[in-house]
Write a structure and sequence with these properties.
The protein has 381 residues and is of the alpha/beta class. It contains 16 helices and seven strands. It has three domains: 198 residues, HUPs (Rossmann fold, 3-Layer(aba) Sandwich), CATH 3.40.50.620; 57 residues, no CATH class; 82 residues, no CATH class.
Length: 381
């Protein structure tokens, strides 16, 4: 299905306020999932203003923060301040420090791809102490075996959940949210995405116009040359966010030491960031590879997917390898050389959430339609 973007005659801020009013009019309980990053700061500010204006009853609202342990002190500070503001307004603010399974790209080298925040067996190595007000257990939690999204799906099943996810950050998100919007704007798990159409510039303009406090970490990352569209400060061990570790050892030496205590393989990001290990295709890497011979990535990928146990040990990697093999078997004649390279690097680097696979599948289909000049027949009217 081709996606068609349309202008609706109002800016994203006004459109978001309309969405929020519609959501609040449902009369059900409202949860707001926050991370302390720029998008969740925008979400908290918008919801807080509507509470203070009387458009939303405080007793119907609960803000939920999942503390991932290894996070920047600035994120903790900002979330503590928002907790105070919401509680003074009569809003419940739940701060969880639960043992859950997080994706860890560094452990793809071992028989494990997980990182467990607040691991009871690693208490002496925790990045910091738990806040006194934090909640570490719940009737809805299966500790150590599932991610926090699974936990929250049960915990928040009695209401609607607002999440500050934006389409501008991922083509996969664009397709997912487009599908949800086509069905009424609420997912099958009762999730809503009120700021889905905001760009990075919209987020930063709102923060500036409202004079909102935000983690200084963003400024430090930007000063080191990070693109404003790549500023990520949550889940430091995920493949799409671990770049921040490349500057952490200089800007935040204490946190860097804590990271190494909890994940000894994290040093690899300093040594191999501009390599295929981290799915990189930068000018620096291209320069390093200029003198190398042409690589047949199609042959290399086929070798891997046909002999997965030779390259992988953990169950998740083996299952994902099977998905890659299915794509080759189904669409191998449509895949370009560049796409084979991207698929090979992703499967070997550890595509823990399958994001690269989904993105390449989308690109394969789009390129095929373009070559066959058949876009028109796939556009929904």
């Amino acid at each position: 299905m081709a996606l068609v973007k349309k202008k609706i005659g109002i800016n994203v801020l006004e459109a978001t306020k309309i969405r929020l009013r519609n959501i609040f009019s449902a009369g059900t309980k409202i949860y707001v999932d926050v991370s302390g990053g720029k998008d969740s700061i925008v979400m908290m500010s918008l919801v807080y203003d509507m509470v203070m204006s009387g458009e939303l009853e405080a007793k119907r609202l609960e803000v939920v923060f999942i503390d991932e342990e290894v996070i920047y002190d600035e994120v903790v500070r900002v979330c503590v301040e928002w907790r105070k503001k919401f509680m003074l307004a009569g809003v419940k603010y739940t701060w969880f420090t639960i043992e859950h399974r997080n994706n860890n790209c560094f452990n793809a080298l071992e028989n494990n791809e997980n990182f467990i925040p607040w691991d009871r067996y690693e208490e002496k190595n925790w990045a910091r102490k738990k806040p006194d007000f934090a909640i570490s257990d719940s009737f809805y939690l299966v500790p150590r075996t599932e991610n926090y999204q699974d936990f929250l799906a049960r915990y928040q099943a009695d209401g609607l959940t607002l999440i500050g996810v934006r389409c501008a950050e991922s083509i996969n998100r664009l397709q997912y949210i487009a599908t949800i919007n086509a069905k009424g704007g609420i997912s099958t798990t009762n999730k809503c995405y009120p700021i889905y159409d905001w760009k990075d510039s919209d987020v930063w303009k709102y923060i500036k116009d409202k004079n909102l406090d935000f983690p200084d970490t963003y400024l430090r990352m930007y000063e080191t040359g990070a693109n404003k569209g790549q500023l990520r400060i949550c889940n430091l061990f995920a493949i799409d966010t671990c770049k921040s570790l490349t500057f952490m050892f200089e800007a935040y030496p204490d946190l860097w030491e804590a990271v190494l205590r909890r994940e000894p393989n994290a040093y690899l990001v300093r040594l191999y960031w501009d390599t295929e290990m981290f799915h990189r295709s930068t000018a620096k890497r291209q320069k390093l590879e200029d003198n190398s011979t042409e690589v047949d990535y199609k042959a290399k990928l086929i070798e891997v997917v046909n002999n997965p146990t030779k390259y992988f040990k953990n169950k998740h990697a083996l299952a994902l390898c099977g998905e890659y093999r299915n794509v080759i078997m189904k669409d191998g004649n449509k895949i370009t050389a560049g796409q084979y390279k991207r698929l090979y690097e992703a499967v070997m680097g550890g595509d823990t959430k399958g994001r690269t696979l989904r993105a390449v599948k989308t690109q394969i289909f789009a390129d095929y339609l373009k070559r066959e000049n058949c876009y028109g027949s796939y556009v929904k009217k």
